[in-house]
Design a protein that fits this description.
77 residues; mainly alpha; 4 helices; globular
Protein backbone atom coordinates (compact mmCIF):
# COMPACT_ATOMS: atom_id res chain seq x y z
CA UNK A 1 0.00 0.00 0.00
CA UNK A 2 1.38 3.39 -0.99
CA UNK A 3 1.34 6.49 1.17
CA UNK A 4 -1.70 8.03 -0.55
CA UNK A 5 -3.74 4.85 -0.08
CA UNK A 6 -2.69 4.69 3.56
CA UNK A 7 -3.67 8.35 4.04
CA UNK A 8 -7.07 7.69 2.44
CA UNK A 9 -7.66 4.71 4.76
CA UNK A 10 -6.65 6.69 7.84
CA UNK A 11 -8.74 9.69 6.75
CA UNK A 12 -11.80 7.44 6.52
CA UNK A 13 -11.26 6.41 10.17
CA UNK A 14 -11.24 9.97 11.49
CA UNK A 15 -14.57 10.92 13.06
CA UNK A 16 -14.22 14.73 13.27
CA UNK A 17 -13.03 15.77 9.81
CA UNK A 18 -13.31 19.50 10.61
CA UNK A 19 -10.99 19.17 13.60
CA UNK A 20 -8.60 17.11 11.48
CA UNK A 21 -8.45 19.82 8.80
CA UNK A 22 -7.82 22.44 11.49
CA UNK A 23 -4.94 20.43 12.97
CA UNK A 24 -3.38 19.62 9.59
CA UNK A 25 -3.60 23.26 8.44
CA UNK A 26 -1.94 24.40 11.66
CA UNK A 27 0.73 21.68 11.60
CA UNK A 28 1.75 22.35 7.99
CA UNK A 29 1.09 26.11 8.04
CA UNK A 30 -1.53 25.96 5.29
CA UNK A 31 -4.97 27.44 4.74
CA UNK A 32 -7.84 25.20 5.78
CA UNK A 33 -9.46 25.44 2.36
CA UNK A 34 -6.24 24.24 0.70
CA UNK A 35 -6.01 21.26 3.02
CA UNK A 36 -9.66 20.34 2.53
CA UNK A 37 -9.64 20.74 -1.25
CA UNK A 38 -6.19 19.55 -2.25
CA UNK A 39 -5.23 17.11 0.47
CA UNK A 40 -8.53 15.49 1.46
CA UNK A 41 -10.64 15.80 -1.68
CA UNK A 42 -8.09 15.29 -4.45
CA UNK A 43 -5.53 13.60 -2.18
CA UNK A 44 -2.90 15.71 -3.89
CA UNK A 45 -0.36 15.64 -1.06
CA UNK A 46 3.24 16.70 -1.69
CA UNK A 47 5.97 14.08 -1.41
CA UNK A 48 8.78 16.56 -0.70
CA UNK A 49 10.10 17.12 2.82
CA UNK A 50 8.47 13.85 3.98
CA UNK A 51 5.06 15.58 4.08
CA UNK A 52 3.16 12.36 3.38
CA UNK A 53 4.99 10.46 6.13
CA UNK A 54 4.43 13.29 8.61
CA UNK A 55 0.74 13.40 7.68
CA UNK A 56 0.45 9.64 8.26
CA UNK A 57 1.99 10.06 11.73
CA UNK A 58 -0.42 12.90 12.53
CA UNK A 59 -3.44 10.92 11.31
CA UNK A 60 -2.40 7.90 13.40
CA UNK A 61 -2.03 10.12 16.47
CA UNK A 62 -5.47 11.69 15.93
CA UNK A 63 -7.08 8.26 15.50
CA UNK A 64 -5.39 6.99 18.68
CA UNK A 65 -6.66 10.03 20.59
CA UNK A 66 -10.23 9.62 19.35
CA UNK A 67 -10.18 5.91 20.28
CA UNK A 68 -9.05 6.80 23.81
CA UNK A 69 -11.94 9.26 24.12
CA UNK A 70 -14.42 6.63 22.91
CA UNK A 71 -13.07 4.02 25.36
CA UNK A 72 -13.05 6.31 28.44
CA UNK A 73 -16.77 6.08 29.23
CA UNK A 74 -16.63 2.26 29.00
CA UNK A 75 -13.89 2.13 31.64
CA UNK A 76 -15.81 4.43 34.00
CA UNK A 77 -18.74 1.98 34.24
Amino acid sequence: MGNIEKIQNLYDQVIDKKELIDKVAEEFNLRKVSVRTNWFTRFDIPERYNVQEKLIELLEKIIDEQEEIIEEPKQAV
